[in-house]
Amino acid sequence: MLRRLHSLPGLVSALLVALVGLTGAVLSVDPALERLGTSLPAGLSVAELAGRVARHYPGAEQIQRTPSGAIIVYYSSGEVSGAARVDPASGAGLAPYAPSAFSRWVKELHRSLFLDTAGSAATGLTALTMLLLSASGIALLLKRVGGWRRLARPLHGSRSQRWHAAVARLAAAGLLLSALTGSYMSAATFALVPDGTRDEPDFPATTSGGAPLPAARLPALLATELADLRELVFPLPGDRSAVYTLRTARGDAYVDQSSGALLAYRAHSGAREVYELVYQLHTGEGMWWLGLLLGLSALGAPWLAATGATVWWQRRRAKPRIAGNAPLRAADTVILVGSENNSTWGFARALHDALTTAGRRVHTAPMNQFSSRHGAARHLFLLTATYGDGDAPASASQFLARLAAAAPNPAASFAVLGFGDRQFPQFCQFALDVDAALAARGWRRLCAPATIDRQSTQEFARWGTAVGALLGHPLVLEHAPAHPATTALQLRERVDYGREQQEPTVVLRFVAAPAPAPGWLDGLLARRRLPRFEAGDLAGIIAPGSPMPRFYSLASGSNDGVLEICVRKQPAGLCSSYLHGLRPGDRVEAFIQPNPRFRPTSGKAPVILIGAGTGIGPLAGFIRNNSGKHPMYLYWGGRDPDSDFLYEPELRDYLADRRLTQLHTAFSRIKDGVHVQNRLSEDADNMRRLIEDDGQVLVCGSRAMADSVRQALDQILAPLNLTVQALRDDGRYREDVF
Ligand SMILES: Cc1cc2nc3c(=O)[nH]c(=O)nc-3n(C[C@H](O)[C@H](O)[C@H](O)COP(=O)(O)O)c2cc1C
């Protein structure tokens, strides 16, 4: 609901929002430019200023003080009339004054799109829409990151989602303020709210009629500080009944030109004060720094419109139509889907198709539609993602409430499959909550809840095999989530390890593949470069014979000029066998999946890198890029130093040039062999010292190794009253496990 409230108005108004934002950003510079070189002498009265100006401009008709403090005089003497910016200290002209034509053009576009009333109405509606977008966007952002306290944490999702959220995080407050004030000003333009600008004091019925005094001696002007002045209109020369019109920040008055007395005064109404504050907060006039901040936020509007439309399109594309969805009343199997960004729907469709092929009548629906009619099916599968801090995704937000209202069906059995990301502290928590809630309500489990990390197609296939065995028929689940376009890479070199241990491991270094055949067009294409990536990101490799990518952590950044991965040959592993068979010059198809959570944060705090086996890949990449020589400690476990000491020569070089501070190795297949977690425990004092120095921990390797490391670290940290979980919550413990 909230998402729809955000995306639909956003899509409809994207172009206008972008235009109003861009023009607003351009206008925001004006107050700061005007402020440049403007200084007001303290304690000067309006009378003194008027006297000085009149000396230099005997035909002065009007003096204006702009919100930025500039003093402008409008004058006319004989045939000559004009406007000039004056120095308040002397009253002398500084330069002719002519508001910039460009600025007026942009202002007109911003206010009314050059379409008079219809245009003003359109920009007014755009401001209202921006208000709705900012408020719903802030709510979505908070939901997405899991609350205010997590707002500064690294963001997740696709590249467009992260860019959208990152800019929204910076610009939302400014956009909200601009939208709120813009809506108010539009409402005032159409007299929907009072602005009090038409409240004038009553024109005096009589004046003293005496000979005019010089402006510098008029008591009412002497009593008014220049800082309060908005405008002083001089009486017509020679007309003794004419008066001065004085407009100040607090009210408007008429002043007798002979006695200098206040003939009439009207203080600004509350409505006028509110309108003026709103105007200031919208334009930044008189508050140039606010203007610039608002302008920067407004620059975010076109960006948010473009990335928002991309996110909407990606989400729409990811949501598959379920072909052959059996009607609910005829279904013997129901699949319920909890999804935010729609990727879980792809897995649901694969399950739907496989069950349908097995002869079942399958109905698939969002979890939010759950009712006892769904529960009447024989088998219930619930596939759900987790969001925020272990919360429900959009299409499952009402599920638990609906479940509480439905009676359990003793004849049905259910299976929950969670989709999540292990880097979140609350991994697949919502799926586990769903499983627990169903069991607590008396529903019967078909199997224990299972979890899928980062949309792993292999884990999904394995779950299918296990569930098929329970159902009594094979369930082949093949689903390759949509991935970005691939790039052709060419193997430049390979370094082999571990043959002696029957654990072949290879470091592969790729470059961008040249175009296949020469020709002028190919020549152009041949300049293709590697895509941008950083060590710790993932390379998705497509092996011939399978559309499903296999992911490998990157051991290099694109600045290194090569794409480097470290691959262990898995028994019967399709992709690892393929990669191990590559010779220099061979080509592969790959794409990059950013993994921004798994990299050291910048700063001088120590970085503790822990890994085993091929987990060294990204860790070696981090060390290679440590040109600032910040303290980095590597704890790494292998089997045999003689055959599989991966990256040994590089690590020795890094130690020598101090990119690596300390190296602690643990080898398990030698006499008195140990694992990496044992090394950590032996070095407990050092670990505690590093953690106390704000150190952060990055762990890469197998799940079993990561579990053992976590247990060892919990023991090591206990004397500090710290846990791995606490470090993780603080963003100081990050894992990349496989
Ligand atoms: C902003 C954000 C928050 C997330 N929070 C969690 C979380 O708390 N726990 C978890 O296991 N996964 C979390 N994930 C990962 C998603 O659950 C996972 O990517 C899932 O496959 C997305 O499925 P969907 O595209 O159907 O929404 C989060 C992802 C994003 C983008």
Automatic annotation (TrEMBL):
Protein keywords: Flavoprotein, FMN, Membrane, Transmembrane, Transmembrane helix
UniProt-listed InterPro entries: FAD-bd_FR_type (IPR017927), Flavodoxin/NO_synth (IPR008254), Flavoprot_Pyr_Nucl_cyt_Rdtase (IPR001709), Flavoprotein-like_sf (IPR029039), FNR_nucleotide-bd (IPR039261), OxRdtase_FAD/NAD-bd (IPR001433), PepSY-ass_TM (IPR005625), Riboflavin_synthase-like_b-brl (IPR017938)
GO MF assignments: flavin adenine dinucleotide binding; FMN binding; sulfite reductase (NADPH) activity
Residue intervals of the Flavodoxin-like domain: 333-468
Gene3D superfamilies: 3.40.50.360, Nucleotide-binding domain of ferredoxin-NADP reductase (FNR) module, Translation factors
Transmembrane segments: 121-142, 163-185, 287-313
Domain FAD-binding FR-type: 484-601
GO cellular component, one term: cytosol
Signal peptide: none
Pfam families: Flavodoxin_1, NAD_binding_1, PepSY_TM
Source species, domain of life: Bacteria
Any coiled-coil regions, as ranges: none
Protein name: Sulfite reductase (NADPH) flavoprotein alpha-component
